[in-house]
Specification:
Length: 101
C-alpha cells in the first residue's frame, strides 16, 4: 500500500497594517487552500511567525503544532539569535499549524 501526499506549504501571507481588520489575510489563506486542492494537495503545513498570522490559523480549522520562542533558540556555538532586540514585539515566536485539505 502506497499513499501519495501532496502538501501546500504557505510561505508568506502579508497584509499592510493599514488594511488589517478586513480579513484579507484569512481570505488569502482560504484562496491558497482552494488553489492547492485544485492542484491535488491533500494537506497544508504552515509556520506562522507573527501574532497576526498565528491568529488567522487559530481561527481556521488548523491544528497547532510546535511553538518556538526566538529568545530560546541558540546557535551552534551557544549564542542567542542575533538582533533579537530589533524584532518587532509581534514576532516573539513561531508556531506550526497543519490541516487536511
Amino acid at each position: 500500500y502506497q499513499r501519495r501526499v501532496r502538501v501546500l506549504a504557505d510561505t508568506f501571507v502579508v497584509v499592510s497594517p493599514a488594511a488589517r481588520g478586513a480579513r484579507l489575510g484569512e481570505r488569502l489563506v482560504v484562496a491558497s487552500e482552494e488553489r492547492a486542492r485544485e492542484l491535488g494537495a491533500t494537506h497544508a503545513v504552515v509556520m506562522a511567525t507573527g501574532f497576526y498570522s498565528q491568529r488567522i490559523f487559530q481561527k481556521l480549522p488548523y491544528t497547532r503544532g510546535t511553538e518556538v520562542r526566538y529568545d530560546a533558540v541558540r546557535l551552534k556555538n551557544g549564542d542567542p539569535l542575533p538582533n533579537l532586540d530589533k524584532i518587532p514585539p509581534v514576532h516573539t515566536h513561531c508556531k506550526t499549524f497543519t490541516r487536511m485539505l
